[in-house]
Amino acid sequence: MPSELFRPAPWFIQPAHNADVALFATPGIVSGLVTAGDSNIFVTLYGVGDLGTLVLAGDSSFVSQVDPNAYPSSAVVFAGLSSFVASLSWISFIAWDLTHPIFGTRSLRIVTLAANQGAQWTLPLLASTTYTTSVFVYSIAGGESAQLQVNAYRSPVFLLQAGKQRLSFSFTTGAGEASGAHALVSTSPAPMDIWADGFQTEVGGIASPYIETSTVVLSRPAGRARLPVGRADPGQGALLTSLRLNFPSTDITVRSTFCLYQDANNYIRCFWDGAGHFITETKDSGVILQAVSAVQTFTAGTVAAILPIWTSSGPGISVGGAAFIRTGGRGIPFTSPVSLDVGSHNGTQQIGADIFWAIGLLGTSTDIDAQIWNGLANSKPTAYSIGSASKPFAIWLGVDSSYQVVTIL
């Protein structure tokens, strides 16, 4: 399928949508909470954060810190279990500061007087693994030159602009590297006075939306989110998602967009097969049937509507609003699912994507439906904008853990 069917969405560079209070008040629709499974759901500014990425550092507000005035003599401050340090030999200083918060109420002020001065912090790393380190910085007038460093790895030199910006770079650890000495430093002899926040190191080659990590833990696991399973119908339905895919089409990892699960021999799922395809798969009493998409070509960060459907006859798949590819010959569908995961296969094979919305449907679907659903990829869908003979049983907008449940169809 041509890559233009993947539509880079402006939504993920806009503020998140607020909950639709009027819709929640509509007769027949009530709100609930997406359950978190084995970990937490982390909501970013632009949608639910990457389900599948291990994040190693982050404290978006620094609110829990005990000393907001820790100047050079005591310039050790904490995010999770990792400490930020202004080395005295660098003659720089760092301090919590309320002047220019980027997230929450405080940020980390970094003042330097010469090149190679700045803030340092250390995190545990896995050997032979690709990571991306990122940080938000605020500059009053711009013009400063800054660099991110991890061990011997160096980012390009960033020329800061006035206001808020995000700096990031990727690196791959060597076979024997078990920790990362991080630093944000000036590369200019001229003084630098900036504010930094949203420090994040994550597995993978791009900087996903910033996700706050609790100050009492150093990392968060791969995410898991589950919608209510009681209304889902293994006989016919759909589980639609709008995703920012934080991996390229050359990725060879198997990744699931959803799974309606009863047991190892009975489930329905949609997954990226690591060979260029999205696949909807039904498994009934151990018998597997698959609908396989055309070969996809996309880059990391692409936003796409992934639209798997299933009926009592078999599965179907549409990517980016294309006509459904269907496979027939399904046996008797299973009847007693126990979980409905979004972004994983019963808690495994996490998608490695940011979720902008997920919609669970009952009933059958047409190619025109696929075009309509794809058109919602950059919008805030409601029970009345889906435009399908299928009926929604759950709509998760991805801006928090609340979902809408249609109780009268």
Topology of helices and strands:
Elements: H1 21-24, E1 29-33, E2 43-44, E3 47-48, E4 76-79, E5 82-85, E6 93-97, E7 107-112, E8 118-124, E9 130-139, E10 145-150, E11 153-154, E12 158-159, E13 163-172, E14 179-186, E15 192-203, E16 225-227, E17 237-245, E18 255-263, E19 266-272, E20 278-284, E21 287-292, E22 302-310, E23 315-319, E24 325-326, E25 339-342, E26 353-362, H2 367-375, E27 391-396, E28 402-406
Antiparallel strand pairs: 1-28, 2-3, 4-5, 5-8, 6-7, 7-15, 8-14, 9-13, 9-15, 10-11, 10-12, 10-14, 16-25, 17-22, 17-26, 18-19, 18-25, 19-20, 20-21, 22-23, 23-24, 26-27, 27-28
End-to-end CA span: 35 Å
Largest sheet: 8 strands, antiparallel
Strand-pairing-aware structural class: mainly beta
Provide the residue-averaged pLDDT: 75
Q: How would you write the strand order of the largest sheet?
A: 1-28-27-26-17-22-23-24
Which spans have pLDDT < 50 for at least 5 consecutive residues? 1-31, 36-46, 59-83, 87-91, 214-218
> What is the helix tally?
2
Please provide the count of β strands: 28
Write down the secondary-structure element order: HEEEEEEEEEEEEEEEEEEEEEEEEEEHEE
Shape: elongated
Q: Report the portion of residues in β strands.
A: 35-45%
Helix content: under 10%
Radius of gyration: 23 Å
